[in-house]
Amino acid sequence: MSYIKYDLNNNSCSLNKSCVCNLDYKLTGTHLNASMLFFDLRGSTTIAEKLEPMIFSEFLSELFTDIMDLIYGNGGTVNKIMGDGIFATFGCPETTGDDAYQCTKTALQIREYLNTFNDVRPSYLEHEIKCGIGISTGKVFAGNIGSIRRMEYTVLGDAVNTASRLESLTKDIGHDILIDGNTYNILKDRINIETTEISHVKGKTEVLKIFKLISLKDK
Q: How many Å apart are CA 128 and CA 45, to the nearest integer?
């Protein structure tokens, strides 16, 4: 049944209200505290230029399968795959009970995985695979947005924007994993950081404290 009725005589269209009323959909959501992780594969454009499209897609699928296994294995959720990047959440729709920790642990596991991958990478990859990861923790809206034609579960909020900005800043700062102050404050007794950077981040009016994540502290 069509959602849109088209009137050939009047050359106009309108919503088929009887159909819309029968739809079982909800545009709902909730506010909660969660940790965001943005992963970006570095140099993917150069890699794609040198490979056949099918080989490049197979490479990405293999890489993302392993990375997503790490995310889900630590209680996270993949919200979006964005070309050569992944947006993952820890704490929505369900909390892990230790979201910031599980998020940073996942980032470190991705780093370790790429190190191992590079040791045995296929011959068609001339250079080592590198990535950038940004992590931020804070209050977000998580829920369904869209319309009767297309609806998706999404996560919105400053923590999402900050994690995305931090991922981009990994290129400038020269470190693969950056976390924000909220994440650091939650985990400062459980993680090792190298230095602290203060930066004016695009789209933010306040100065943002940035921390380079090195490792987890031994228990």
A: 14
